[in-house]
Amino acid sequence: MSLIKTFHKWLSLLVGLQLLVWLGTGLYFNVMDHDKASGNQNRQRVESPAVDLQRLIEPKTVIREYDTTVSMSLITLLSHPYYLLIHEKGLYRHFKNSYSLVDAVTGKPFVITKTIATVIALESYKGTATVAATVKLTGPSDDFPKEQNSLWQVNIDDDLNTSVYVDAGSGRLIGHSNDDKRFVDFIFMLHFMDYASEGSFNNVQVIVFAIFTLFFAFTGLIWTVELGFNGQYRPALLLGRKLAKTKKVKVFDKHSKSIGQLAMASHENLLDSLLNHDIALPSTCGGGGTCGRCKIVVDSAVKMTSADRSQLTEQELQAGYRLACQHNSDELEQLTLVDVTEAETHELELISSEFISPYIKQLRFKSVSGERVEFRAGAFMRFFIPAAKGSSIPAYLPVELLHHWQDVIHMEYEHLACSRNYSLANGDGQTDELVFTVKIQTSPNERVKPGIGSSYICNLAPGETIEAVGPFEEFYARPSSSKPMVLVGAGSGMAPLKALIEEQLIKNTSSRELYFYFGARSQLDLIYSEHFQQLSDSYPNFHYLPVLSRPGQDWNGATGYVQDHLGEELATELEKALDKTEFYLCGPAAMMESTIELLKSHSIADNAIAFDKFE
């Protein structure tokens, strides 16, 4: 025991020091000047002139000269058009790539020389400083350690010691760096323990530190148990916890008019408790505390959760605003509603349930009342998930999908009642069915339950019923607009985008141009592919553009991440019409954030970007 205590104390010193480093660097990230941290103080946007396509030689003529070409695109360097031929393509641009450049007018090969790289760099630099040196780097640079391709480093003689980096193969501007950015990179290195400058937080130092922290926790647990056996303290008895109970809460509408006293269960959050009384607060995250829409007003003494602080302003917090999904009836005596969404509760009967990919099901419902449920494409419904026993493995799993689920943790569990939002996937207006595509969320480990809502609803058998409220219409195509639509999605974020496409093409017979970029891992995850191919054949204004991140050998389409492929398209085919285009996004958070950042980098206005939060 003495050895364990000694080990624990020394580990506490190591862990404590690193926590102080994280605290200090994290504090710096909150107070630093983010504009300076980017290294772009002296960077300016380079405008590409319009290309006279009549002057260009035929791409086929160029491709015939290069047998190993994977893809080819038209780019502009220094106001002149070139064909960029990719012979070896990495998953990301900073991965190893092999390029050739050909003058699009003369057909002659073009090489990024020292002089050309210097001119490209100065074109992106705003200022009058001179070039100190231009150096070719064959390995990763200190400023951009992830870059695996050869670079030209153009050093500018200014107060910030600016360096501009140009890809030696493609002429692409990698970025700017200066002393301000280098200092921030040093702080990042400390924060992520990236002492080998790998440009990644997934390094040996972090792994070793995680192992030490695990031992620190384990030795602390042993010490805690030893103290308990020695009578130093008595563990709190779980049997002494308060059992869940029901409490009446006074509810007022937004005009301070009393709605009455409503009975609410202490184990339910207020969002779900109000829904049980047919009071639907707006919410797109299904109670996850990330959309910030289910606002209520309570006594300002009610504790603030981290979600409250994140989603509400300081003025709102002091005025008693809280998120209903983050609190329950035990915390308050009364509440005032801020905004209530008009919606009806429907009893839905499951008509069919089928897998359309290894982890995504298509569910078809109809209203038990027989009345048609009207909705606008892009709408969602909030399903009431009752308290029940659940299983992490679907009850009706087809034989051909068994091998996809063999490594999924099998878990039997119980869950309380809750509610979950799912988007409608049909928008053609030709049926009274309600169609949903739902991804079954698996568990990452034995301590975490799988997706309660998705597991429950996907385990329903045809003929079974479930209650849902809605539809809620918060994500939809602009009415009467004829502008081109670019839709970007991934995974089960397909649902509202599929509905929008069907509404435009089938229901409205719209002639506006539609471009649908859909990202998936493999061909198996490319849901509704045949349906969209048929739409593409039937409607010349619809363009279906699937992108796979882990394609099979027989895949001839686009590869990588869908937002990266969209970025390439924005720089070529779609560039001329960007100011007249509407963008509709739905998918995983990382994809959404990356796509929105991409669009804003192309000066797309906020009111031209609509997105459905995918929680």
Automatic annotation (TrEMBL):
SUPFAM superfamilies for the chain: 2Fe-2S ferredoxin-like, Ferredoxin reductase-like, C-terminal NADP-linked domain, Riboflavin synthase domain-like
One Pfam match: NAD_binding_1
Keyword tags: FAD, Flavoprotein, Membrane, Transmembrane, Transmembrane helix, Ubiquinone
Keyword Flavoprotein: yes
Residue ranges of every copy of the 2Fe-2S ferredoxin-type domain listed in the record: 247-344
PROSITE patterns: 2FE2S_FER_2 (PS51085), FAD_FR (PS51384)
Domain FAD-binding FR-type: 343-478
Molecular function GO labels: iron-sulfur cluster binding; oxidoreductase activity
Transmembrane segment boundaries: 206-225
Origin: domain of life: Bacteria
Cytoplasm keyword on record: no
Annotated PANTHER family: NA(+)-TRANSLOCATING NADH-QUINONE REDUCTASE SUBUNIT, NAD(P)H-FLAVIN REDUCTASE
Name of the protein: 2Fe-2S iron-sulfur cluster binding domain-containing protein
Origin species: Shewanella canadensis
